[in-house]
Specification:
Layout: E1 4-5, H1 16-21, H2 23-32, E2 36-41, E3 44-49, H3 52-61, E4 66-68, H4 71-80, H5 89-99, H6 105-123, E5 131-133, H7 134-150, H8 157-179, H9 191-217, H10 224-230, H11 241-254, H12 257-272, H13 274-288, H14 302-314, E6 321-325, E7 329-331, E8 334-336, E9 341-344, H15 346-350, H16 369-372, H17 393-408, E10 411-415, E11 422-424, E12 428-430, E13 434-439
Helix pairs in contact: 6-7, 6-17, 7-8, 7-12, 8-9, 12-14, 12-17, 13-14
The structure holds protoporphyrin IX containing FE.
Length: 450
């Protein structure tokens, strides 16, 4: 079958300029051009699948023909190392079952306690009327929560703090690399590179000590690290120390900035939709009555859950994802040759009127069970789909619920820049992040009025 090729494009550069200049428009144009579309990134053709049915073929039905890869992925590979996020399917086939138990629902109650504690410690510092960099704060919160969920068995707080500090340097490096996509630049012994190398050495040293200590005692501390150390593959082999290092690093990269950015989007969404915010506050006040959230509260917060779900639809941080084709195949009758790069855009899917009524309106009630039933499952892809779907989905959802209840329940946040000015590069995020805090009075507010 002949393929739809996107018109336009420049010699040598192809459609790269369009993609860089107006990325969100570009992926929507691709979507409207057909179920499988081709465009050129530089001299290289890239195939894009644009419908839920085609995403299902790519990620589930024909997933054996595709592996992690493609243009976006290559930029972050060096930082992700060989952990689950960045490894190929052969490695993932062994690693994923070993990692799954650490993210099992049964473990979430324990993680909830940690996340609630971390969030409360940060919120206690907030001052009514002050202006904060909400993105920076949420990055500290998610980094802190994940570090403590990983190493709750480490009694000395210095170790957790050290991991957090070095991870900050490493995660910052991801952004730097993404914005300067010229690989040799990152090899120059410039201060950022030297700092990053030192941070990586430090991470190895600290994680080595933790691993040695956990292995020595053999105890299950109920944290992510214990689960990974205790995990075995079918042949009864555990993870090597190098694998454990890689998993810690890739999890930190995949599981901190993503949730933090979602919190920033939610602050903007609630400011723009005071009706939604008021209804959510009503629910939080009723269920929590000003106290901290427990694991058992989560299912009672139905509307808040729908707000988080709707934010994941409107603002998918992983807005564009890629694969490469490992063996010749067909999608919608179009031949995809081995070696080709293939992309799909959760953003374009989420904004498609064929998938969602009034896709640009922020409507948490579209997630009411009776309305959500009609939705194609592959039309909603904030966490990807298939064998490489985000392993941290429940962890992240729980974390966002807790952080919404802690930061966006008792406080109204007013953006300093009312227009978020969305940016779409490695992630989809607002350009601005400063917010003015104003304290709400809560049902059983024991604190003195601010
Ligand atoms: C709102 C927060 C998050 C979002 C939007 C998100 C999104 C995603 C997406 C879209 C993928 C699939 C990428 C692809 O198909 O190429 C993914 C994979 C992954 N994520 Fe998340 N993620 C989030 C939070 C987390 C957290 C908290 C963790 C860990 C604690 C985590 C760990 C991972 C891992 C390990 C993978 C790789 C899974 C595999 O390849 O088998 N993520 N994430």
């Amino acid at each position: 079958m002949p393929i739809n090729v996107l018109p336009g494009g420049l010699p040598l550069l192809g459609h790269a300029v369009d993609l860089l200049r107006r990325p969100l428009d570009f992926v929507e144009r691709l979507r409207d051009a057909g179920p499988v579309v081709r465009f050129n990134l530089g001299p290289k053709p890239v195939y894009v699948v644009t419908t839920p049915a085609m995403c299902k073929e790519l990620l589930i039905t024909k997933s054996q023909c595709f592996d992690k890869g493609g243009p976006l992925f290559k930029q972050s590979k060096t930082l992700l190392g060989n952990g689950l996020v960045g490894c190929d399917r052969e490695q993932a086939r062994r690693a994923r079952p070993m990692m799954n138990p650490a993210f099992h629902h049964g473990r979430l109650a324990r993680y909830t306690e940690v996340m609630t504690q971390v969030s409360a410690e940060i919120a206690e510092q907030w001052v009514d009327g002050s202006t904060v960099d909400f993105d920076a704060l949420m990055n500290v919160a998610t980094m802190d929560a994940l570090t403590r969920c990983l190493f709750s068995g480490v009694k000395d707080t210095d170790t957790a703090a050290e991991v957090r500090a070095v991870m900050q340097v490493i995660v910052n490096g991801v952004g730097r690399r993404a914005f300067i996509p010229i690989s040799w630049v990152h090899k120059l012994p410039l201060p950022p590179k030297l700092r990053e190398d030192a941070a990586l050495r430090e991470l190895h040293r600290v994680v080595d000590n933790v691993i040695a200590e956990y292995r020595r005692t053999g105890a299950d501390h109920g944290d992510l690290m214990s689960m990974m150390i205790l995990a075995q593959d079918d042949a009864g082999n555990g993870m090597t120390d190098t694998q454990l290092h890689d998993e810690v690093r890739s999890m930190m990269v995949a599981g901190t900035e993503t949730s933090a950015t979602m919190m920033l989007w939610m602050a903007y969404a609630l400011h723009e939709h005071p009706d939604v915010r008021d209804r959510m506050h009503e629910e939080l006040d009723l269920v929590l009555a000003g106290r901290r959230l427990d694991y058992e509260d989560l299912p009672k917060l139905e509307y808040t859950g729908r707000v988080v779900q709707e934010a994941l639809r409107m603002y998918p941080v992983a807005w564009l994802l890629s694969r490469y084709c490992v063996s010749d195949t067909e999608l919608a009758g179009v031949r995809i040759p081995a070696g080709a790069d293939v992309m799909f855009s959760p953003y374009a899917e989420h904004m498609d009127p064929r998938n969602f009524d009034n896709p640009r309106s922020f409507d948490p009630d579209r997630w009411l069970p009776e309305r959500a039933r009609a939705m194609h499952r592959q039309a909603f892809l904030p966490f990807g789909s298939g064998v490489r779907k985000c392993i941290g989905e429940s962890f992240a959802f729980t974390e966002m619920m807790i952080m919404v209840a802690t930061f966006l329940g008792p406080w109204n946040l007013t953006p300093v820049h009312p227009d978020p000015e969305p940016l779409a590069s490695t992630t989809y995020r607002p350009r601005h992040s400063h917010m003015v805090l104003s304290r709400r009075s809560l049902p059983t507010d024991e604190r003195p009025p601010a």
